[in-house]
From TrEMBL:
This is homocysteine desulfhydrase. The keyword Isomerase does not apply. Its EC number is 4.4.1.2. Its cofactor is pyridoxal 5'-phosphate. PANTHER family: CYSTATHIONINE GAMMA-LYASE, TRANS-SULFURATION ENZYME FAMILY MEMBER. The keyword Cytoplasm does not apply. Keywords: Pyridoxal phosphate. One of its GO terms (cellular component) is cytoplasm. One of its GO terms (biological process) is transsulfuration. PROSITE patterns: CYS_MET_METAB_PP (PS00868).
Length: 356
């Protein structure tokens, strides 16, 4: 067994070691990017929509972090779409009120066509969510939610979903496997937008599913192959390169976020701070409403005014500028994705922008 597959190694060590060529004299220390559509007949790979060796290292590393078998997809939504395919025709999906709006948008479109029925509840209200689980085929979980940062009691909700016989899915994009590993709690599938923390540099779009169930894995693989939502080899290569530093990036971003959340709680221009106590995402409500929130987006110089999150660079945006964001998200809410810069530079810039 080569070192990277040694189960006694910490995941932080394994993700650095996985997906490298054999240690032979003269070999590259890093993997190659295989740009090909097909392979000469008779080997392990047949056609590059089925498999591409460049996906393997990324899948092995994410699988190791989450504790299951991973499949790389062209985007987080591609992965989510494949997971939703596991719902039987006419089935019901329970989804958090404030799940990522792409997820709720996709489910709403599928409900429109009669493919499935949606039930929505507040995932941070345990009783409400448990009550809503009656006769559902899939329980969707996201914690913390995007962008309201509501936190769910995952152990309890996953256990209840398991007992009810529903497929439980957790979108682990915000927490990352460094803060929570839903498969260990009994979840059936974990899904990520690998665009965010896993790759970490805002330079690609990718998604990933992880499961411990061989039957679900087979179905997800079939959906990826036939649906065609496969990542390009360059993206997969970059994603593995980014993933190798997840532990240090995330540690720094989380420390910055904890410090900024504490300072923002004292800020006269901030009426509410949503910060779950861990992770690197914060949402604030700005005194002075929409205009004041938009003025902050205009005034920042270190923070980037942009959608998305999970990169080394700090970003913020007023979420309600997207028509798809639910009305229950306050219109003066700014979602902050805290990066790895110097925390005092981040604070000085944000404080100045908030003071207008
Ligand atoms: C961004 C995001 C997605 C969608 O992922 P893409 O890579 O943009 O397709 C799904 N879930 C969450 C929580 C996200 O933040």
């Amino acid at each position: 067994m080569s070192a990277e597959h040694d189960p006694s190694l910490s995941p932080a060590t394994a993700v650095v070691a996985l997906g490298r060529p054999e240690r032979t004299p003269g070999a590259s220390v890093g993997p190659a990017v295989e740009f090909t559509s097909t392979f000469v007949t008779g080997g392990a790979n047949a056609y590059a929509r089925f498999d591409n060796p460049t996906w393997n290292g990324f899948e092995e590393a994410v699988g190791r972090l989450e504790g299951g078998t991973a499949l790389a997809f062209a985007s987080g939504m591609g992965a989510i779409r494949a997971v939703v395919e596991l719902v039987p025709v006419g089935g019901t999906v329970l989804v958090p009120q404030h799940s990522y709006n792409g997820t709720t948008g996709l489910l709403a479109a599928l409900q429109e066509t009669g493919r499935l029925t949606i039930r929505r509840a507040d995932v941070s209200d345990e009783t409400a969510y448990l009550d809503a689980m009656d006769h559902v085929d899939m329980v969707w979980l996201e914690s913390p939610t995007n962008p309201m940062l509501e936190v769910a009691n995952l152990p309890q909700l996953i256990e209840a979903a398991r007992k009810s016989g529903a497929i439980s899915v957790c979108d682990n994009t915000f927490a990352t496997p460094l803060l929570q590993r839903p498969l260990e709690l009994g979840a059936d599938v974990v899904v990520h937008s690998a665009t965010k923390y896993l790759s970490g540099h805002s330079d690609l779009i990718m998604g990933v599913t992880v499961t411990t169930d061989p039957q679900l894995q087979e179905k997800l693989h079939a959906t990826r192959t036939l649906g065609g939502a496969i990542p390009g080899p360059m993206e997969a290569w970059l994603a593995l390169r980014g993933l190798r530093t997840l532990h240090v990036r995330f540690e720094r971003a989380c420390a910055n976020a904890a410090e900024l959340a504490a300072r923002l709680a004292q800020h006269p221009a901030v009426t509410k701070v949503r910060y779950p106590g861990s992770g690197a995402m914060i949402a604030i409500e700005v005194a002075g409403g929409v205009r004041a929130a938009e003025a902050v987006e205009q005034a920042i110089r270190v923070w980037l005014p942009a959608t998305s999150l999970g990169g080394v660079e700090s970003m913020l945006e007023r979420r309600r500028r997207h028509a798809s964001e639910p009305q229950t998200v306050p219109d003066n809410l700014l979602r902050l994705s805290v990066g790895i810069e110097d925390v005092d530079d981040l604070w000085t810039d944000l404080d100045r922008a908030l003071r207008g």
